[in-house]
Each structure stands twice: as C-alpha cells, then as structure tokens.
Amino acid sequence: MPAPEVDVPAALAWAGSVLGSPVASYDALAGGVTSTMLALRHDDGAESVLRLMTVEPWRSHGAELTARERDAQLAMAETPVPAPTSLALDADGTVAGAAAHLMSRLPGEPLGADADLDGQQLQAMADLLVTIHAQRPAPPFRTFQSWAWEEKWVVPDWSRHPASWRRAFEVLAGPAPAHEPTFLHRDFSHRNLLWSGDAVTGVVDWVETSTGPAWLDTAHAASNLALAHGPGPALELLRRYSDAAGTPVEAHWLVMDAVGYLPPPGRRPLFGRTDQLARLDDWLDLLVRDPGLS
C-alpha cells in the first residue's frame, strides 16, 4: 500500500507558526537522499530549513532519525562545530504525515557535484573532523551501526577486482580493532558541508549521529571523495586527518565503509553510474592492497 502524500502546505503553515511569521516562499534544496529539504523565507525576512522525511525506508524511521538530528544539533550548540540550530520538531508526523524538523539556515553553499576540492578545503575538512571528534556530549549517542551488513558480502558482478572484495569480507569477518568511543557525525562528507571559499560554514544532515571509532567518520568522507573524484583527494584527506589527529590510518574502518556501499543482494546500488561503480571497485582494491596507504 503506497504511503500517504505528505501535506507540504500544512508543514509550511506549522513552520510559519513556530517562527511567528508565515512562509512567504520556499525552494527545494539539492541533495536530500532521504528527505525533502526546503529552504524557507518568512514574511519578516527570516530564513529557515525544513526537513520532511519523505523517502522510504527512512520515512518509516523518521521519528527516530529526526529526533536524533535535533539532539545532535542541540548538543553542538555553543561548540565550535557549525551545526544548524534546531527550531522545532514534529517527529511523529502529526502535522504533515511525515516526520518534520525545522532548523536554522546557515550561510554558505554546497560544492557543485563536479567541483574539485583544493588542499585548503581538504585541510578544512580534516580539521573539522578533529573538532567534531573532540566533542563529548552527555549522554553519549547510540553506538554506531555498520552499513557493511553480512548479507552484502557478495562479490559484485561488475567488479574487476573480485579477489579484493573477498579479502575485504575476510577482514570484516575478523575482530575489529580496539577503539576509543568517539562522537561521530556518521555521514560526514563534502556533500554535507556548506562552504564560503575554502572555509566550512556549516555541517548538515545529523540524522545518523553516533558514538564509535573516529576513523569510521573519516573513512566515509574519503569514500565519498573517491566515488566523486577518484583516489587522489580521498588519500589526501586521510593523510591530512592522520596528521591533524595524530593517529595512524586504521584500514579496518576504511574497508568497512567501502563495503557498506554494496547493496543487499537483489537490490541496485543507491548510485548507479558506471564511473562511480568503477571508482568504488578501484577504491576497495586500493584499501585491501595497501592497508597502510603508504
């Protein structure tokens, strides 16, 4: 049975009532794999951002996801981390039929899909990761969840490096290295950052916030760079983070993140472009062949 339609006008009216000024206009924001993201402009000139959790399977878990995002934003208030400010939450979807989270709009713009990152931007990402991982919210967030579920451990038929995938599955079947539980964004990537020149002005999309190994956050950022631009920027980010954090690369978490991009058997990857699949294949092969990334 199809999910009921989301009542966007009701959500806009709710957002206007929260801020005490009706919504005059709105635009869809780019991205939004899990949600409809709307930039709102109010009659009094204020701006806000409205998340409507509209896409399955995330919609079914919208109450938990949006509540976690609200809690993360509250935890980051008064810290050096440039997160949005949570303004109101309708986690149960009472207003619009889907979970809704209203938050402040931060300055800056996301990078274009094909934009190359320069050294200063990669350093900004590494430094921001160190800052995020230094936060100690109380109480801690949930323990991280691996996205490399065992049912995904099937060599993809499009791989040119099947032996490397088999080796990756062996790595994940073994014990994970000991780690200090650390505050994680858990979906940190260049896609979830707002920029003004080479400076990061905002970190968005906090629905997966967790506690776990710091290198898992960095691994996800590197995987995203590798899929978008190839291994060069990804390796450079790993090097810069290692230097900034003062810790060596931990290959187990890099492999876990890369394997997490595989779909469960019988499903298509979230991304379907041939070049992205080839880059994932080559990235995993590199991680397995050179776990120290020397």
Automatic annotation (TrEMBL):
InterPro entries: AGP_Transferase, Aminoglycoside_PTrfase, Kinase-like_dom_sf. Residues 28-246 form the Aminoglycoside phosphotransferase domain. This is Aminoglycoside phosphotransferase family protein.
